[in-house]
Design a protein that fits this description.
Elements: H1 3-6, H2 19-29, E1 35-40, H3 48-57, E2 61-66, H4 83-98, E3 103-106, H5 124-130, H6 133-147, E4 151-154, H7 164-179, H8 188-191, E5 201-205, E6 225-227, E7 232-233, E8 238-239, H9 240-248, E9 268-275, H10 292-298, H11 303-318, H12 322-336, H13 345-364, E10 368-374, E11 378-380, E12 384-393, E13 399-408, E14 413-422, E15 427-435, E16 447-448, E17 457-465, E18 468-474, E19 480-482, E20 485-489, E21 493-497, E22 503-512, E23 517-523, E24 529-531, E25 535-538, E26 544-551, E27 560-569, E28 572-574, E29 576-581, E30 589-594, E31 596-602, E32 611-614, H14 622-628, E33 632-634, H15 640-643, E34 648-651, H16 665-670, E35 674-677, E36 692-694, E37 702-703, E38 710-712, E39 739-740, E40 743-746, E41 750-752, E42 754-757, E43 763-764, E44 768-773, E45 776-781, H17 785-790, H18 794-805
Parallel strand pairs: 1-2, 1-4, 2-3, 4-5, 11-19, 21-31, 32-33, 32-34, 34-35, 35-45
Antiparallel strand pairs: 3-16, 5-9, 6-9, 7-8, 10-12, 12-15, 13-14, 13-17, 17-18, 20-22, 22-26, 23-25, 23-27, 24-26, 27-28, 27-31, 29-30, 36-40, 37-39, 38-42, 41-44, 42-43, 44-45
Helix pairs in contact: 2-13, 3-9, 5-7, 6-7, 10-11, 11-12, 12-13
């Protein structure tokens, strides 16, 4: 499959469900009493085709529990890594959930949490060495007790060859299924209004996830039933697989979402692992009623419940006539509130949610449309702002005593506006003046509903329809709240190479909403000097730059040091910046970053010629290489005319995926060019000058322990000794992984130089290959070198210098 041609890319962050489709979903879901919870480790792990079928075809209430934010994942669309890519993927997950549609729960709600995506893991034991298992279980049990699902299913199997974090969540889900019904488990929940809950059924996926990444050692369990995710859903004229790809296209950073036609669709099989009620036939829901009609039959025709069933059936026939639907919904609500639910906790939970659904439907078809607009989508703490609220009554009805309440992210009231009367077909406008909250936007919310867009501000509309109290959220354009003053270094990490210099200039950026002059200064390590000691400027919202000269002492050690920056005005002081993350397909997000610059002092020889560099989507280390004293010329094509100007080419991680034409590369190497390539995936337009195959599935061709042993296969290789000697310190202090996408086979032109050993004792020789190709060279490095350069790891400096300097 040609990924570039087949990829689906969203053009914006707006919901692709029309008003008519949303109304149909609301009406269709009223008769269904199925709540389905899926659990997964990461954003994009969700089984979207099954969740889309359950939500859109069956009308089920669907939710996804996601353990971590995806901080350890790659990024195919930008430079964000770590916390930043986690926030980007969180927003992508929120958008994908809205398009299923389904609710979303997170376990990770803290930047310094004990449950975080630390990178790839090969087994659950390794995962639980990094995760707080008790906290994960508590999060899962809390969600089960809040949501009260009939059916629970993890996304992945607990099988060797599968991601360790996936397996850990599956293990925890199986435990939580029973713990949620145990009155001795997490008793603090009961003081918070929750109660025990026994789900009816626990499922497992009955399909294999083996492929380009994973390599499951066992076949999947027996399939007990299938969801018909291959059938066409009439209102969309697509099957659930196609609809799923429309949701998955929002996982752009992970290159997901494909164009598929209706012929490309499969059923989705499940294995029944546990059931609370014995059922002779293994079916979805374990035989417990999945519709109000089935509940009415099982309760010997409760008159109010049966009346509610009849009215909802009429509503489905009345679709899409708003007036009829509103009248019928009001009648259904009255009947629903009179059903005796005390005899069955499951029915009680379902009917409580049916009331929520009916109230939402009544609000949406009441004819009152309210739109909110902000002065700006980027606000500073404590500044004055306003929200314009537009009211539009589209029906021949009257609304009195309309209220709009504005809250901050933590539900603290900011202001209120009232509209006493809105006549038939009238419009009105109100302005809500408020002071922006003193806390900046916090992105790690625990729960995102279909109505809660995880925004920095929330507006609630209160009014009545035929005597029924209505409360609903008003959609506010995504807004970011930043600190009063932003300060940051242009470069957050750099090398100081003593072979080149002992002092350097560093740039600090400042902006904010405070009036008047402020003083900007740096705090340097002991013995270091900074000139000027302080700089004064008149603060504005427009970013300004201040340059400082930083000098190391003559006796500086080859260690890591930290510079800090701050802004002072009187007794107030600021030392951080809100780092915004904004792409077309998501709502803007971001987080607060302390204004620091890490400095790694090294003493290494670097190449004295310019190096051509073809960067990959994940590369963000060019400024770090520049701080080493390496001159890089970024190129974006591999044509003879470009290559002839250089004798050395650095191809960054996944770099070949960014170009289409590579035919000129091999002749350039044969004539004496030297190419250094960092890790690539097999599908990244990989086209080496001689036989070199990247290992797949990648699970079997990576070492996830960043401190794993590195042995020299050719100790006297010039590449390991010139111009810098690479010793055991070279491999210390690495982050995340030792390497990935190792080569699994190569021709006689290549020689392996390193051996890397993982925690299981498996030895890999394909992490660093030297190839003599004609008069030139190809050096392929699958170690996670770029990641170390971004974090200015000491050994990475000498290593990259040797790769770019060495020539036979």
């Amino acid at each position: 499959m040609d990924n570039n041609k087949q990829r689906k890319k969203p053009t914006n962050s707006e919901l692709n469900l029309s008003a008519l489709e949303q109304l149909w979903l609301q009406t269709n879901s009223l008769s269904t009493t199925l709540t389905f919870l899926q659990t997964g480790a990461h954003p994009d792990d969700e089984t979207t085709r099954a969740l889309s079928y359950l939500s859109r075809k069956m009308g089920a209430r669907v939710a996804y529990f996601c353990a971590v934010r995806g901080e350890g994942g790659q990024n195919s669309i930008g430079k964000e890594k770590g916390t930043a890519i986690g926030l980007l993927r969180s927003r992508e997950m929120e958008q994908a959930a809205r398009h299923v549609p389904m609710e979303l729960y997170w376990s990770n709600t803290d930047f310094d949490t004990t449950i975080r995506d630390f990178g790839f893991s090969k087994n659950p034991e390794d995962t639980f060495q990094n995760w707080d298992k008790e906290k994960l279980l508590e999060s899962l049990v809390r969600v089960i007790r809040e949501l009260k699902p009939n059916v629970i299913s993890p996304t992945m199997l607990d099988i060797e060859g599968q991601h360790g974090q996936h397996r850990a969540v599956t293990q925890a889900t199986i435990e939580a299924y029973s713990l949620a019904a145990d009155s001795t488990a997490f008793p603090e929940h009961f003081k918070q209004g929750l109660s025990v809950w026994q789900a009816n059924q626990l499922l497992l996926p009955a399909w294999s996830a083996s492929g380009g990444t994973y390599d499951e050692a066992l076949p999947p369990p027996k399939a007990h039933f299938e969801l018909a995710t291959d059938i066409i859903l009439p209102i969309w004229q697509q099957n659930s697989y196609q609809l799923a790809e429309e949701s998955r296209q929002y996982h752009q950073s992970q290159q997901m979402g494909f164009q598929v036609d209706s012929q490309f669709g499969v059923k989705t099989p499940f294995h029944v692992l546990k059931e609370h009620y014995e059922n002779p036939l293994p079916v979805l829901g374990a035989g417990v009623p999945l519709s109000l009609n089935d509940w009415a039959k099982s309760l010997n025709m409760d008159i109010n419940l049966q009346s509610c069933v009849n009215i909802i059936q009429q509503m489905q026939s009345s679709f899409p006539e708003h007036q009829k639907l509103k009248e019928q919904a009001l009648k259904a609500l009255h009947c629903l509130r009179n059903v005796d639910t005390k005899t069955n906790v499951y029915l009680e939970a379902h009917l409580a949610f049916k009331e929520v659904q009916l109230l939402k439907l009544i609000a949406d078809i009441s004819g009152l449309f309210v739109e909110a607009k902000l002065e700006s989508n980027s606000l500073y703490c404590l500044e004055s702002s306003s929200l314009t609220v537009l009211f539009n009554n589209t029906q021949n009805s009257v609304f009195d005593n309309i209220q709009v309440h504005l809250y901050d992210q933590w539900n603290k009231p900011l202001t209120t506006v009232k509209l006493n009367h809105l006549g038939a077909f009238e419009e009105a406008q109100k302005n809500m003046h408020f002071t922006v909250p003193s806390r900046e936007f916090y992105p790690l919310q625990r729960y995102v509903s279909l109505q809660n867009e995880n925004n920095a501000l929330r507006a609630e509309l209160i009014y009545q329809v035929d005597g029924i109290d209505i409360k609903q959220n008003i959609s506010i354009p995504p807004v970011i709240i930043k600190p009063e003053v932003d300060i940051s270094f242009t470069l957050s990490a750099r090398y100081l190479n003593l072979k080149k210099e002992r002092s350097f200039e560093t740039e600090v950026k400042v902006s904010g909403n405070r009036k008047g002059h402020v003083a900007v200064s740096l705090q340097a390590p002991k013995g270091w000097t900074v000139t000027p000691s302080s700089a004064e400027l008149n603060l504005t919202k427009h970013e300004q730059t201040v340059m400082f000269k930083v000098s190391a002492p003559n006796d500086v050690n080859l260690n890591a040091y930290t510079l800090s920056a701050n802004v002072k005005q009187g007794k107030k002081q600021w030392n951080s910046k809100f780092q915004s993350i904004d792409y077309q397909h998501i709502y803007a997000t971001g987080y607060t970053v302390t204004a620091e610059q890490k400095i790694q002092v090294v003493d290494c020889v670097v190449p004295n010629k310019s190096v051509a560099c073809l960067t990959g989507a994940t590369d963000d280390y060019l400024l770090q290489l520049k701080s080493l004293g390496i001159t890089l010329d970024v190129i974006n094509e591999l044509t003879p005319n470009v290559l002839k100007s250089y004798d050395t080419l650095l191809v960054g991680s996944l770099g070949f995926a960014s170009v289409q034409e590579t035919e000129a590369l091999k002749p350039w190497i044969l004539q004496g060019g030297r190419m250094v390539s960092l890790y690539h995936r097999p599908h990244d337009n990989w086209n080496p000058p001689s036989h070199l195959v990247i290992g797949s599935p990648s699970f079997r061709w990576r070492v996830t322990q960043e401190d794993s042993p590195v042995n020299y296969l050719v100790p006297d290789s010039p590449l390991l000794n010139l111009p810098n000697v690479l010793d055991e310190k070279t491999w210390q202090g690495w982050h995340k992984d030792r390497g990935l996408y190792f080569a699994k086979e190569w021709g006689n032109d290549y020689n392996p130089l390193l051996e890397v050993i993982d925690a299981e004792g498996i030895r890999y020789n394909g992490s660093l290959l030297y190839g003599k190709i004609g008069n030139g060279e190809h050096i392929h490095c699958s170690l996670l070198l770029g990641y170390q350069l971004e974090r200015v790891v000491s050994g990475a400096a000498s290593f990259i210098a040797n790769l770019l300097t060495y020539k036979v």
